[in-house]
């Protein structure tokens, strides 16, 4: 999802047509070879960012994703200042547990701040309270 978002908003070089499907399965399966899986079956932020970088080099794109601790300021700047998607690692969430999601918006109620994401399981427009967010890749 993140790669396709960059493909749409930057230059069209991030995802070739052969991997651009309506459900994203082809791209996800293709990315497995680039993102290391740890012995415990998950991936950490460095694995994800490094894997994306390795993949992008094969596409002729020189973009190294940045990994940082998540904050509302970073979510806000990705969306408002740069109009680009972001990847969030959420932890200990009641529904999603420890899970990667692709963000494309935000909502600040004054009391709580939320990232607006696609959950990777087919649902978009999901609001995740920033208290569950651990890392952001942008």
Q: How many E strands?
A: 6
What spatial order of strands do you see in the largest sheet? Answer: 1-6-2-3-4-5
Structural class: alpha+beta
Binned, the helix content reads 25-40%
Weakly predicted, low-confidence segments:
none
Count of distinct structural domains: 2
DSSP helix count?
4
Biggest pleated-sheet summary: 6 strands, antiparallel
Question: Overview of this structure, please?
Answer:
By secondary structure, the chain is of the alpha+beta class. It folds into two domains: 2-58, no CATH class; 67-137. It is built from four helices and six strands; from the N terminus they run αααβαβββββ. The chain has helices spanning 2-11, 25-31, 45-58, 72-81, and strands at residues 67-69, 86-93, 97-108, 113-118, 126-129, 133-137. Strands 1-6-2-3-4-5 form a six-stranded antiparallel beta sheet. It starts with a helix and ends with a strand. The model has no long low-confidence stretch (mean pLDDT 88).
Q: In summary, what is this structure?
A:
With 138 residues, this protein is of the alpha+beta class. It is built from four helices and six strands.
Structural topology:
Blueprint: H1 2-11, H2 25-31, H3 45-58, E1 67-69, H4 72-81, E2 86-93, E3 97-108, E4 113-118, E5 126-129, E6 133-137
Antiparallel strand pairs: 1-6, 2-3, 2-6, 3-4, 4-5
Which features does this protein show?
alpha+beta, 2 domains, six-stranded antiparallel β-sheet, 4 helices, 28% strand, globular
């Amino acid at each position: 999802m993140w790669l396709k978002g960059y493909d749409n908003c930057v230059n069209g070089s991030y995802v070739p047509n052969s991997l651009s499907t309506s459900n994203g399965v082809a791209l996800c399966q293709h990315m497995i070879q680039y993102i290391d899986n740890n012995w415990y079956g998950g991936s950490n932020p460095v694995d994800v960012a490094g894997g994306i970088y390795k993949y992008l080099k094969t596409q002729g794109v020189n973009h190294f994703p940045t990994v940082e601790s998540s904050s509302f300021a970073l979510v806000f700047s990705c969306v408002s200042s740069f109009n680009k998607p972001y990847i969030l690692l959420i932890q200990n969430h009641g529904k999603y547990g420890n899970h990667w999601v692709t963000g494309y918006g935000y909502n600040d109620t004054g009391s709580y701040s939320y990232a607006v994401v696609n959950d990777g399981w087919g649902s978009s427009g999901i609001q995740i309270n920033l208290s569950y967010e651990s890392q952001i890749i942008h």
